[in-house]
Structures are given as C-alpha cells and as structure tokens.
Design goal:
alpha+beta, Beta-Lactamase, 6 domains, 5-stranded antiparallel sheet, 20 helices
C-alpha cells in the first residue's frame, strides 16, 4: 500500500486525528502552565523540558507506528490476494447462506467448477442450482439444517452445472445462525461424481470377479495363514448354508463336521504349510467319491500370495475335476499298450523313421528277420543296416527330396513294392515293402511294413516251373486216367462175366448134388451144401453192389426237384413188402423236398432205410423217423432209428467199402451200401455224417447243394 492509499484509509485518518488531538491537548496544557505561579517556574521549566522530550518520543512512536501500519496494510493486501487466489483454486466450492437459504457469498471457483459466475448465484436461493426433478426434495433437506440438533454434518446433493449436467456433491455444512458475528450457514461443496464413478466401477469389478469366481469350472477357496476358509465359490460348496458355515473353519473341522475321514484333510493342511513356507505353489492329485458314489480325481493347488513387502496375505486354493482327463490318459495309455502289443506281435517287420530317415522304432520281427539287434538299428539310417549297397545312394537321395518337398506326391508311398534287403550276416533276402507317411504334431514320420517273401518267391518260381510242364503232365495224367478207366471197364467186365460164371457153376453143381445124391447125404452134408449156395448168392449180391458203386462216378446227374416225403414212403413200402418184418413205426415229415437226381436219391434212401429196418429188428418197438432240421447253421435231412447203433470211435471206417460195424452173423450185409450213399452225396456236392451210441440207435444227416 503506497502513501496515497494510506492517507485515504479511514482507519489511518482516524489515527492521525487522534494524534492531532493529542497535540491540541498538549498546547492547551502549555497555555495552562504559563499561568502557573512564578514560584513554580523551575518546576514548569523542568516539566516543559520533560514535555518536549515526551513530544519527541511521541513523534518517534508515531513514525514507528506509521511504518508498522504501512507494512501491515501491505501484508493484509498480500494475504487478501493469496486468499482470493486460494478461493479461486479450491477443489471445493464455498457457499454461505442466510436462514432463508439465500446465497450471500459464493467462492470464485464456482465459475471454473460449475460454469456460473458468482454474480449469477449471489442473492438467489441455493435451490436454484438443484435439478428440477429433485428441487423440492433437496430444498427441504437444506432448509431443515437450522432445526437439526447437530450444528455441522454432511448431506448428499445433486447440482446442475451451466450445461445442465447433473453433478453429485457432498454438502459439508456448519450452522452459524445465531452467532452475532456471523449468523449464517457455511457450506463446503465437494464433487463426488468421480468418487461415485470409481465406487461404481469398483462394484462392477467386484461383481465381475465374483462372477468369474462363481462360474469358473474349478473349486476356489481362499485361506488365511492358519488354513481357515475366508472365501468359497459355489463350485466348491453348492449349499449356501454349508458354505457360510465353513467360513472361519479349517479342513479338519469341516471334515469332522461332515463325518468324513480327517486323514485327507490333514494331508491338505501339510501341503498348505509347505506352500506357505516355500512361497511357491504346490499341486497334488486327490481321489474322492461324490454324493452319488462316483469316484473322481481332483487336481488341487495351493498358491500363496504375498504383498509387495513380501508379507503373507492369503493362500488361494483351487481344484479341477480331472476325472475325464485321467480316464482319457488311461485310455491313451491302454491304447498305446495295445498298439505296442500289436506292433510287437506282428509277424511282419515294422520300422518307423523320422522325417530325416532316422530309425526311431524297431519291432521284434524286424530283429528276427534281419538279424540286427534293435539297439544297433535305432538312431541310424536304413542305409547303414538293411539296404543293399547298390540301393543306398538312391534311398538317401529319396529321403533328401522328401525333406525338401514334403508335400510332393511320391511314387513309393502307400504302395506295395518288392525290394531286396540284406541281413546282418550279409545274406540277401527278397522283401515286400509298404511305406505310410504319418503326420503327428507337425512332424512327418514314415511307418514301414516289411515282409520276408523269400520263401514265397521260391514257391512261385517252383509253381512257374511246374506250370511250364503242366500241359505235358495233363496229357500224361489224362492218358493214365484213360488207361485206368479202360482197366476199370475191363475189371467190371471180368467181374460181370468171368466171376459170375464160376459162381453160377458152384451154385448149379451144388443144386445137382442135392438133387442126385440128396437121399444118400446125411444132415451135415445137406447143411454144408446149403451154406455153399448161401455164400454163392451173397457173393453174387456183392458183385452186383460193387458194379453199382463203380458205375456211379460215370452217371451224368439229372438234377430236378424230388419230393423226398413221397419217395421215402415208396422205398419203405418196397422194402417191407420183400421181407416179412416186425411192425415198424415209420414217420416221415410232410413236404420234404430236395434238388437232386431222382434215381440217385432212390439209391440213397433205399440203402439208409434198409439199414434202419435191419438194425431195428431186434427191438421190441422199432421206430424210424425221417425229417429236416438245422445243423451247422444250415438245413439238413436226417434218418433216425432206435436200433443197435454203433460206437462212434470207429466212425472213420463207417463209409468205407467192405467196412462193417457189426458181425455178419448178427446183421448180414455186403458193406458196400454206405460207401455208395456217400459217393452219391459227394457227387451232388453235399455231405453225409452220422451220430450214434451203441444200443441207442443212429441218426444219419445229409445235405446236397441246390
């Protein structure tokens, strides 16, 4: 403050007036002293001197006070400027109102914070700053402040800025109504919009992380330093009440509460301590059973958390259900075992090469075929072991080309090739090779299947040599067959004529002997002659059957539908009419049909039914059944009887010529019938066999190709 301003200052002018009045009073005192008695002149003279000294002192004091006042006004002006600057730069707005809530003062920073000038706000109701939709409600709260028991407090109020944007404020009020020096309400307004925004953001983040913790497919738990639960997500404990109960409890306490074995809980606590002390995460697998009794495997982890000062805060525990993954691993392991078993059991050599042509796998057959131990083949090129010298350069060049151009189509992959190979002993063998490329994890490998075909090639050469002489051999064999047929025809002629003549002579002379000398022969001689005639007739039948058997192979089959039911009945009737027999129960299934040569099937049924009739004659109630059934998954015909049967241990000679299963004296016959039947069935492309037990009957099954 300069001298001119100081002289204009009212307080300073008042101060000067007071000093001037002091001088006036001082002059009056001097006038009074002049009238004092002469006798007191000395005293007055001394007093005058003192007054002069006082006056000088007063002048010095006035000068000092004037200086101090000047400095005080300077400091006051500076403080006023600083206070004004402080008000303009405050983060809070200062508003002062009277008891009617009319603004009597507002800090200058309202313009920068709300966009209003102080002149636009002063002398208006404070409610003019409120949003219209909240004006009455907020005005009521402001106007109730004078009646509140607390002289200071805080209320939340929304204001409108100059752009009509709502902004949230905390109104810190101090009620000074009734104070004779002030008599106002002082409001300090603090913008809380950013704080509320941050609070809302924190709530959103909390909800976000809480949602993640609840929805993540893992058991999440947080423990304090004593292994007590301070948080659990719903995946860990679904029941809300149980989840609340466990907070503040340890695993051991929880296990005891649920009636479970605390052993696993104690093991968890030991791992928890290790994780906490080592300050690193600890993982472990845990087997358990769920509420439905299903076994499951959990992968659990304890992760200790520390602050920036390495002070312990908490341990995060999380568990993942890895039951399916473990089962998948077990399946993969089992599949690998199966694959290894298959590859190690394969008769062919299996050799796997990497992308550079280096051997990575050799099965036992490869060791056996080539004579190289697995250890000497692994980590080497095939050129160093089984590839002959003349093919090694080509093999190495081919591998290099495949490395340079892995996608280029190759003529040797996925096809069967015949190549020579070499054993460790140096012996060369012929092989059949197939190579399959397989892409695994961005790496191509080659799986080679190698078969030793040396024996097969030798056999093929032998077959080739045989084929070259086959025509000559066919001609030779045909000639031999023709000669055999001629010999068979000659034999048949001899049997038919040469053997029959002596038999007829023996039979004729025997009959003549009986006729001419029968009266002189005794009973024994008659018996002998009867046996001769009987055996002659048997020999004749045998010759007839043998001729029939030889002719079957020459007969051209005339295949047509045959009604087997009707044919069986005709054959049975013919057999029973020729010889008196016991009353036989004969049953034939209706509508039996077969595609065959009718005359040949007549021979088959005649032989089989004749045998059934013959072998049931010693039974009290003989029975024969003819029908159709399923054997060996195909329809077959059968002829079953309850006769003498036979022992199956001797069944190998059942269908042989002249083979008999019983004594001639018990059951007469030639032994040719079943051989004839089998030959006819074979000629039809079929099969015949029998099932039997001694004294329990027999069943003959047969079928022919349609």
């Amino acid at each position: 403050m300069n001298n001119e301003e100081l002289l204009k200052n009212e307080e300073f002018q008042q101060f000067i007036k007071n000093i001037n009045q002091s001088y006036v009073d001082f002059e009056d005192d001097k006038s009074l002293l002049s009238n004092i008695n002469i006798e007191n002149q000395k005293e007055l003279s001394g007093l005058n001197e003192q007054l002069q000294n006082i006056a000088k002192s007063q002048e010095l004091i006035i000068e000092e006070q004037t200086k101090n006042i000047t400095e005080a006004y300077g400091m006051l002006s500076k403080s006023e400027s600083e206070f004004k600057a402080l008000l303009e730069n405050l983060a809070e707005i200062i508003i002062i109102t009277n008891s009617d809530c009319t603004v009597t003062y507002v800090s200058p920073n309202i313009e920068s914070l709300l966009g209003y000038t102080p002149q636009e706000v002063i002398f208006k109701e404070i409610s003019s700053l409120f949003p219209l939709h909240r004006r009455q409600e907020q005005k009521k709260r402001i106007c109730e402040i004078p009646n509140l028991p607390d002289k200071q407090g805080i209320i939340a109020i929304d204001l409108l800025d100059a752009n009509q944007t709502e902004i949230s404020f905390d109104f810190f009020y101090k009620n000074e109504l009734g104070n004779p020096l002030f008599n106002s309400i002082i409001f300090t307004l603090r913008n809380t919009s950013e704080v509320k925004s941050k609070e809302m953001e924190m709530v959103r983040q909390k909800d976000f992380y809480e949602h993640i913790l609840q929805e993540i497919p893992a058991d999440i738990a947080i423990f304090d330093e004593t292994h007590r639960y301070i948080y659990l997500n719903k995946k860990a404990i679904k029941n809300d009440e149980l989840r609340k109960y466990i907070i503040g409890k340890t695993d051991v306490e929880y296990a005891a509460y649920r009636g479970r074995d605390v052993k696993i809980a104690k093991e968890r606590m030991d791992l928890f301590k290790r994780a906490k002390e080592s300050k690193i995460m600890h993982s472990f697998e845990e087997e358990s059973t769920d509420a439905e009794g299903n076994k499951k495997t959990m992968l659990r982890n304890f992760h200790p958390v520390f602050d920036e000062h390495k002070n312990f805060r908490y341990v995060v525990g999380f568990g993942l259900d890895i039951t399916e993954r473990k089962e998948a691993q077990r399946k993969v392991f089992r599949n690998e075992e199966k694959l290894n078993l298959i590859m190690n059991s394969a008769l062919d050599a299996i050799i796997i090469l990497d992308s550079k042509g280096i051997v990575t796998f050799v099965n036992p057959s490869a060791e056996q075929i080539f004579g190289w131990p697995k250890e000497e083949m692994l980590n080497k090129s095939l050129a160093a072991t089984i590839i002959p010298n003349e093919h090694r350069e080509g093999h190495q060049h081919g591998m290099q080309e495949r490395m340079k151009h892995p996608d280029k189509k190759s003529e040797i992959l996925k096809r069967i090739m015949e190549l020579p190979a070499m054993k460790k002993s140096g012996e060369r063998i012929k092989t059949e090779l197939t190579i399959f490329p397989i892409d695994i994890e961005n790496e191509r490998i080659f799986c080679s299947f190698i078969r030793d075909i040396s024996d097969r090639k030798r056999a093929e050469e032998e077959i080739l040599n045989l084929n070259t002489t086959l025509e000559d051999r066919v001609v030779e064999r045909t000639l031999q067959l023709e000669n055999a047929n001629k010999e068979l025809d000659s034999f048949s002629y001899s049997v038919s004529h040469d053997l029959r003549s002596p038999l007829r002579a023996v039979d004729g002379w025997s009959q003549a002997l009986l006729e001419d000398y029968g009266n002189v022969l005794d009973e024994t001689a008659h018996e002998y002659i009867s046996r001769i005639k009987k055996e002659s007739n048997r020999m004749s039948d045998l010759i007839d059957n043998l001729l029939s058997l030889s002719k079957i192979s020459k007969v051209r089959l005339n295949i047509k539908p045959v009604h087997l039911t009707d044919l069986s009945k005709e054959v049975f009737e013919r057999i029973t009419q020729q010889t008196p027999l016991k009353n036989i129960k004969f049953t034939v299934e209706e509508n039996l049909k077969i595609e065959a040569d009718p005359s040949m099937m007549d021979i088959v049924l005649t032989n089989l039914i004749s045998n059934a009739v013959k072998f049931t004659q010693k039974k009290d109630t003989p029975e024969i059944i003819i029908g159709q059934t399923i054997k060996e998954e195909m329809p077959v015909f059968y002829i079953k009887d309850n006769g003498a049967g036979f022992n199956l241990t001797a069944s190998s000679k059942l269908f042989g010529a002249f083979q008999r299963m019983h004594k001639q004296s018990d059951f007469p016959g030639t032994g040719i019938g079943l051989a004839t039947v089998q030959k006819i069935i074979n000629a039809h492309g079929g099969r015949i066999w029998a099932e039997s037990e001694k004294d329990a009957g027999a069943t003959f099954y047969f079928y022919v190709k349609s």
